[in-house]
Amino acid sequence: xxxxxxxxxxxxxxxxxxxxxxxxxxxxxxxxxxxxxxxxxxxxxxxxxxxxxxxxxxxxxxxxxxxxxxxxxxxxxxxxxxxxxxxxxxxxxxxxxxxxxxxxxxxxxxxxxxxxxxxxxxxxxxxxxxxxxxxxxx
Length: 138
Known about the structure:
- This protein has 138 residues and is of the alpha+beta class.
- It is built from 3 helices and 6 strands.
- The radius of gyration is 15 Å and the shape is globular.
């Protein structure tokens, strides 16, 4: 696992993503969000949508094996815009019915973001998500 967090950027790479690491990533990302957007009401939406995107990458790209997942978030303070990218290097597959207990991840992400897109290629899938935040009072 590799992690980089600056004032405006969060980068986390799970070289061999496993389900047990998801809560660690959520906690680290949540701490970073608190540092860049504070108690903005959008924080819960960002955490939920990002968590769903990471779980989708884990479940759909690799099914029953470990593989790399990257999380890259950027806060553009001048525009009060937060962008989050979740990327895998697998091949999008539908999990067997006994593993696919959710099935509504993309719909949830769509409701929680200002904009989002899924980009599929031969080298993996990238989920991009965008939030427009309220300016913070000084």
